[in-house]
Amino acid sequence: MVAYGAEQRVRVAAVRARWLRQTFVHWPFRPQTVQALLPPELAVDVYEGAAWVGLTPFVMADVRPVGLPAGVPALPSFAETNLRTYVRRADGRDGIWFLSIDVASPVMLAARAVGAPYHLGSLRVARAGDTVSYAGRRVGGRVSYRLRVRPGEPLRPTERDVWLTSRWRAYTRRLGRIWETPVEHEPWPLADAAVDGLEQTLTCAAGLPAPLGEPVVHFSPGVKHVRLGASRPASA
């Protein structure tokens, strides 16, 4: 069972931020399909017999990298969109594997140093009435998405809701090694959400076929106390 709250304290944060107006769109896939996209050190995690791939657009706000002097303003807010799946190491430690990360801030491209698959693009998040809209286009113009959702009422998370949304480390691969980045924040406040429109080429660009079924969709107003630890080589 995935922990609803953070599994570890990030005592020394490399980055602090808020993650706001986040939507989770998860599709089921055959496990072997997703496993083919992973490094050999990681095994795809499954729930109800399926591997799950999530499209997760949101706003990064109040981003403060380590070393930013006191009194210096945080970075301006910007949009980010992840395409991710869920994995386990041989020791059972679960985490996120990013198939792609599209971002509107060039500063974040520095994380390519540990293998994070960042792509610079033009991204937008907007709220109008009872809908939240997301759109993005990667530099080069061949990969894009448009998503519009209507958040519903707050929900009491089920086991599947927690499994799909609550992960406390990310894995990347660089120079032949797996790197681990720990994360800590309060539990996601979740609501159901209805999709009013969705067009995307992110999954195809990542090498995925059509999913096995319709997506499971959640919305969250966000978490305000995000602490990302320094990335480090994962122990063998």
Q: Give the overall shape, derived from the CA principal axes.
A: globular
Give the biggest sheet: 13 strands, mixed
Order of helices and strands: EHEEEEEEEHEEEHEE
Instruction: Give me the count of strands.
Output: 13
Low-confidence stretches: none
CATH architectural group:
Beta Barrel
Number of domains: 1
Compute the CA-based radius of gyration. 17 Å
Strand content: over 45%
What's the total helix number? 3
Note the gap between the termini.
Answer: 23 Å
Mean pLDDT: 93
Within the CATH hierarchy, at the fold level, what is the topology? Answer: Acetoacetate decarboxylase-like
Fraction of residues in helix: under 10%
- What's the name of the CATH homologous superfamily? Acetoacetate decarboxylase-like
- CATH C-level label: Mainly Beta
In terms of structural class, how would the helical and strand content be classed? Answer: mainly beta
Features:
13-stranded mixed beta sheet; 3 helices; Acetoacetate decarboxylase-like; mainly beta
Quick take:
With 236 residues, this protein is mainly beta. The chain has helices spanning 31-35, 159-165, 202-205; strands at residues 15-29, 43-44, 51-65, 78-88, 94-103, 118-128, 131-138, 144-154, 169-174, 177-184, 191-200, 216-228, 232-233.
Q: What topology does this entry show?
A:
Blueprint: E1 15-29, H1 31-35, E2 43-44, E3 51-65, E4 78-88, E5 94-103, E6 118-128, E7 131-138, E8 144-154, H2 159-165, E9 169-174, E10 177-184, E11 191-200, H3 202-205, E12 216-228, E13 232-233
Parallel strand pairs: 5-6, 5-9
Antiparallel strand pairs: 1-3, 1-12, 2-4, 3-4, 4-5, 6-7, 7-8, 8-11, 9-10, 10-12, 10-13, 11-12
